[in-house]
Design a protein that fits this description.
The strands form 2 sheets. Strands 3-4-2-5 form a 4-stranded antiparallel beta sheet. Strands 1-6 form a two-stranded parallel sheet. It has 12 helices and 6 strands. It has about 300 residues and is of the alpha+beta class.
């Protein structure tokens, strides 16, 4: 088992990385407000069709051009799964027409003959999509609130504040990356963000546990020394957990197909920034709030 004994002066880099984080957060927030988010069919309404083409002569360009000629609004065609499988998403232009999908099927038949079939069709109306977006935001807010209460009960209020700031940092930057690179936001991304919250909190709690133990153990040391010592003592655990998780996520990203790219990319960002924030965001707040042995012993 990897057991690193390090003495890295993390506290010397807190200010620099805090400035970098602040800049990245400002860029992320600016992009979210001015550029917006690329909401998928789940949130903005529309139609999703999972199409299987049996002919090798029909390419993704043929599929895309066929749907573009139907004037369906914004059309997005991706390969996924087996050869000949396509995921088509587009804005629904005639939601009151009961024969909407059947008309699309007929138009495709003129181009492809009988060499295709619809494996899945999903329609998301504007009302449903707005409710899904609201529910997704509520889920994220409730998860952050639950984590805040948990840390407050488990530790002292200073630890709780440090943990929640680190979580908000991770969520904002992750969503900011999706805005900057215009990646699609759908329900799977909401699930990824909720998973990121849990992962980041777990990493932070491990370090906070060691900080509290060392505050009781070294009564003459100040919080900055205790914080630096605790990070170094838990560094091997952090490296093992983060690296093994990233290996699995990178495998999903590169070999899991297009349909899993968004989810795996969000998780990769979450693991990286979750590990980073546990060290360079949560711990500096403990130092700024001047956590000491008296506050810990008083709680006990």
């Amino acid at each position: 088992m990897l057991n690193l004994k390090t003495d890295i002066p993390f506290i010397n880099y807190f200010r620099v990385f805090n400035i970098i984080s602040l800049i990245v957060i400002l860029i992320s927030v600016g992009s979210i407000f001015y550029k917006g988010l690329n909401f998928g069919v789940d949130f903005k309404g529309g139609t999703l069709i999972e199409l299987r083409v049996d002919s090798e002569e029909i390419t993704i360009s043929d599929v895309r051009n066929s749907f573009l000629r139907m004037n369906l609004g914004d059309v997005n065609v991706k390969k996924f799964g087996k050869e000949g499988d396509y995921l088509i998403k587009f804005e629904k232009t005639d939601i009151n027409n009961e024969n909407f999908i059947e008309n699309i099927r007929k138009k495709l038949s003129k181009n492809f003959g009988a060499n295709f079939n619809f494996r899945r069709v999903e329609n998301v109306g504007p009302k449903v999509s707005s409710e899904l977006l609201k529910d997704g935001l509520i889920a994220i807010v409730l998860s952050l609130s639950a984590m805040l209460i948990y840390i407050w009960i488990r530790f002292e209020w200073q630890f709780s504040l440090g943990a929640i700031v680190a979580l908000i940092h991770d969520v904002i930057i992750t969503i900011g990356f999706f805005s900057i690179f215009e990646f699609e936001i759908n329900l799977s991304i909401v699930a990824a963000v909720l998973t990121i919250v849990g992962y980041s909190m777990n990493d932070t709690v491990v370090i906070f546990d060691r900080v509290r133990e060392n505050l009781k153990k070294y009564t003459s040391k100040k919080i900055d020394e205790i914080s630096n010592l605790s990070i170094n003592e838990t560094l091997s655990r952090t490296i093992i957990t983060s690296s093994t998780t990233l290996l699995a996520l990178l495998s999903i990203f590169f070999f899991g197909g297009t349909i899993l790219h968004g989810f795996s990319f969000a998780m990769i960002l979450g693991v990286i920034f979750g590990t980073y924030s546990s060290i360079f965001i949560a711990n500096p707040i403990l130092i700024k709030l001047k956590v000491n042995q008296k506050s810990v012993l008083k709680e006990d």
